[in-house]
Fold:
Amino acid sequence: MMQRLEVCVLIAGAFLSLTAHAVQALQSSPDVSPVPANLAPHPAPEQPLPYSHQTHVRMGLACRLCHVNPAPGKEMSFPATSTCMNCHTSVITGRPAIQKLTQYARSKQPIPWVRVYRVLPGVTWTHGKHLQAAVQCETCHGAVGDLQSMSQTTAVTAMASCISCHQARGASTACAVCHAWPAT
Ligand code: HEC
Ligand code: HEC
Ligand code: HEC
Ligand code: HEC
Ligand code: HEC
Structure:
């Protein structure tokens, strides 16, 4: 078991050193306008596997190890199951949840994760421009590394949250930046 965990930590370490430079650059920019937390409770939806951000982020895994931003840049996307299997072909393979994960991997079907954050149709949204502007994941999604199960802890999908950050950072607040009427 110890040996498997060490392999795991090595893999994580390799990814971390790749991203360490980028992370440092982000940490030096002050977080001037975090999105407000949702006051009303937004319970976590039931997911096909009991995946925990707390467990994996505290292990030192970077967000971008699992969430990539494929062209044209709109989505952060859900992890490829092969990313999970880098560790879980050897780590805690006896646990029922990992056996279920292994079945998804063998089926070659994506894991049917239930979406948590979603803007209304017709709103122009992209992660790419925000990453280019060095807005951090946590600024919009909150303290993800504290979550046992993912829920909508921030109000980032509300128009007021978009606009108040755009005002604070000098980004455009013209209606047409975020809306195309009629909605496409
Ligand atoms: C080991 C892989 C892994 C790492 C590392 C990881 N995530 Fe995730 N993330 C997932 C998986 C799997 C899901 C889908 C299941 C869920 O919602 O918990 C997810 C879902 C999410 C969602 C919800 C998406 C939606 O709307 O449905 C957000 C937001 C998110 N992650 C942000 C982050 C941030 C921020 C970090 C870094 C602090 C991070 N993740 C690190 C695997 C990962
Ligand atoms: C860098 C290695 C690594 C990666 C990558 C990784 N995990 Fe894990 N995962 C672990 C370790 C180690 C544990 C055990 C933590 C503990 O119980 O102490 C764990 C625990 C889990 C558990 C809890 C199992 C249980 O019943 O206790 C689930 C579910 C899980 N991982 C799913 C995933 C999914 C889904 C992905 C891909 C999105 C993923 N893991 C990616 C190392 C990893
Ligand atoms: C400026 C705010 C903002 C930032 C910064 C941000 N997100 Fe998001 N995120 C959103 C919004 C809004 C949605 C809902 C998008 C939709 O409905 O299409 C979302 C959706 C997601 C999803 C669901 C799948 C998808 O691609 O739509 C994941 C996963 C996610 N974010 C992860 C991350 C990670 C990881 C980071 C950092 C690398 C990050 N986000 C940075 C606002 C943000
Ligand atoms: C935490 C701050 C923050 C939040 C929250 C935020 N944005 Fe942004 N947004 C920015 C910054 C900074 C830019 C980059 C402006 C630039 O490049 O001049 C940007 C750029 C954009 C662009 C590209 C504009 C262009 O000229 O190409 C769109 C579209 C956009 N945001 C939509 C949204 C929407 C929709 C939401 C809410 C769901 C949102 N943003 C939430 C900070 C934020
Ligand atoms: C920075 C991005 C942004 C800008 C700028 C913006 N909006 Fe929005 N707007 C949104 C988002 C995101 C939603 C969806 C909120 C949700 O999902 O609850 C929305 C929702 C709306 C809705 C409700 C749509 C519906 O179908 O219920 C109206 C109406 C609206 N906006 C009008 C405007 C007008 C008028 C302006 C210009 C004065 C404007 N918006 C500027 C992001 C923006």
Residues 63-64, 67, 75-77, 117-119, 125, 127, 130, 135, 137, 139-141, 156-157 surround heme C (ligand 3) (CB under 6 Å).
